[in-house]
Backbone:
């Protein structure tokens, strides 16, 4: 099974539609057996779901994600684990072990009338509080 994570400098990148890299993890028998970082080559929101589907990805770990992207991923048969921050490797390991806490309603709107922007947090606390040790 393949799992993808939005990726930047070892961390979960917080804006799905703007991610420039995914880290792909190959999982067999509940263990990560390999991983690689791939570029999106400037692929925009709409095409990212198709790109992941073509790569055989079954699940995506990400920070903030918009409704349109969430819908496109659902149509591609890809499970979305949004609202995750911190280490990409730790988050995917937690998912594989069945202990990843995520926000099923996480979204990134970019139209917050108050001028603030919260897309799942932009600070690193190891697993961002999403791993249960």
Residues:
């Amino acid at each position: 099974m393949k799992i993808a994570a939005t990726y930047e400098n070892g961390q979960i990148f917080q804006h799905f539609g703007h991610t420039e890299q995914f880290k792909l993890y190959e999982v067999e028998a509940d263990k990560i057996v390999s991983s690689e970082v791939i570029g999106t080559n400037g692929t925009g929101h709409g095409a990212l779901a198709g790109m992941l589907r073509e790569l055989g990805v079954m699940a995506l770990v990400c920070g903030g994600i918009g409704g349109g992207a969430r819908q496109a991923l659902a149509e591609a048969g890809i499970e979305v684990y949004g609202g995750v921050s911190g280490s990409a490797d730790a988050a995917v390991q937690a998912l594989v072990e069945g202990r990843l806490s995520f926000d099923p309603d996480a979204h990134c709107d970019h139209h917050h009338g108050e001028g603030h922007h919260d897309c799942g947090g932009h600070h690193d606390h190891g697993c961002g509080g999403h791993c249960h040790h």
